[in-house]
Structure formats: C-alpha cells, structure tokens
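Review form for a predicted model. The reviewer records the input and the model, then writes brief findings.
Reviewer: anonymous (R2)
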Amino acid sequence: MSPKVGLVMKWFFNGSSGLVYQWIPPMRPQVIGLLKGKVDLDFKISDDPLQAYRAIKIRNPTTDLSGNYTCVVSTFLEEDRQTRTMLVYSPAQNFRFVQEKKYVFLVSLICSAQNMYPKPVIAILANGVPLKQTVTEMKMDSWGLYSVTSTAVVHDDDVTSPLEEFVCELSLPPANYTINRTTIYYPGLMPTTYIATFEVNKPQERLSNGKLQYRLCKI
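Model under review:
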C-alpha cells in the first residue's frame, strides 16, 4: 500500500461527529477535540511508514475519556471501521465500614466510599446475604465521580450468636473491580457514638488486568 492511494485514518469518540484523531501519511497525526493535548504525538507503534501512527497513546487518561472509539481507515478504493469501548475507572477512596450505636438494642452499620467511576454497586451482607433493611444514598459530583453511603440498622434480637460478622461489598462491575470491608458486632454493648474497637478490616480487591484498555487500529 502506498500513500498515493489516499490512505486516511481517523478516530471518532462516541459517534461519527466526534473526530478526535486523524492521520494522513506521510504527515504527522492531528489531535482534535476531546483528546487535544492528551496524546503523545511522538509515539510510534511501528517503523513502517504506513503503520507508525495507527495507535493512540493517551497521557494521564481520566474518566471522561471513557466511551466508544471508532477507527476508520479509508483509501480511494475502500473503507473499513471498527468500534471498541475504553473504560478509565476510578477506584474507591476513603472506603469505610463502621458501627454506630445510639440505642441499647440497635446498631447502625454505615459503609461509605468516595470518588468512584463508573457507578458503583454496594451491599451490606450477613452470612453472604444482603440485608434488606439497607438504605443507600448515592451522589455524583461535577466531575462525574460517585460517592455512596449505605446504612443498615440491626436489632440485637436478630443476632443469635455471641457475635455477628457483617461485610460491606463495593464493586464497579464494568471494571471487574470488587473490594470489601468486614466489621464484627457484639450484641449487648452499651450505646456509644462510634465503635472503632470492634472494627476489623479485611480488604479483598480484585482488579482487571489494567485500568486502561488501548485499542489498536490495524491497516
């Protein structure tokens, strides 16, 4: 293949109107719109002059770059395109699972986390079963990041053993990310504002192979 046949490679973000990258050999690539200032224009994936800039290397990707990317390769004679999804996720920050006891026979289990993307799924479990009395509040800030607080109130009469282990599980399903915290409750304790002594943290985190998925466009 020769540049004389009119080779043009374009990348689009979330549809045909969102052009973000264009390369017409033998010229250097152009970055447009969403990716402007975020691409390493010195990055080459091949020494072949018709392959060199077919891939994009993004510097410091942020969650707003998540979406569908379409690569369109065309010549004077034909055109081909492929679309793939890239997810840039933000793991949980300030992930806490605590007990708060204001009444003799009731304890509040409070699980919270901040600055997550995409939208998280949260559950408070006992013996692997989600507590039905859980109330969850979720907020999204101006950057598109989520904060979540989930609260469950447990009565001492529902705890049939000397202690009960509760687990807060937080996940970002599209990112294959799951993390949890465990706290142990002893019924019969007197009211206190915050029970820190009996909190046990057991983080178990499963991450995908990488936070970023780079898709290469082959000519």
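Findings: The two ends are 10 Å apart (CA to CA).
Further findings: The domain at 94-185 is CATH 2.60.40.10 (Immunoglobulin-like).
Recommendation: see findings above.
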